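A student in our group prepared the protein record below, which I am reviewing. I have pasted the whole thing underneath without changing anything:
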Amino acid sequence: MTNPPRVAVFPGSFDPITLGHEDVIRRALSFADRVIVAVAHRSTQSKHALFPISERLEMIEEVFSDEPRVVAAEFEGLLVDFARARGARLVIRGLRTVTDFEYELQMAQMNRALHPEIETIFLAADASLGFVSSSLVREIFGLGGSVEDFVAPPVRSRLREMERTG
């Protein structure tokens, strides 16, 4: 008898997906058979979206075009309901700071109270990417700065196009 595939969900806004996100997702593939990058319709923070969800999904697919075990999906509602419906028993969260940990620990404990079969795994950000966030990328881009070192080529292309079309 074979074991069922280990499916993990990595939720977030991914507006846009950064090299930090990419690093966490690729590292998660060392223990998950498949990673679903789940783009949330409703953010827990008030943010002005740079890209519509459909475009975020496309960028994720482009960034991971070399990795068939990574899929992009959108979701609404409770993350644990989405994970359960997709057969995922793991939730992946990246941590950059102690503040991230405090917030993410509360979320993990609440998710576990709602659905005890779902485990949250925290991955510390790579030291070279620990300061990179979608929020900072949006802010730097909005102020005319270069974000070339913080996002993958497909995202760079979309940002350049956005600059050209205004």
Summary: Residues 50 and 142 are 9 Å apart (CA to CA). The mean pLDDT is 94. The longest helix spans residues 98-114.
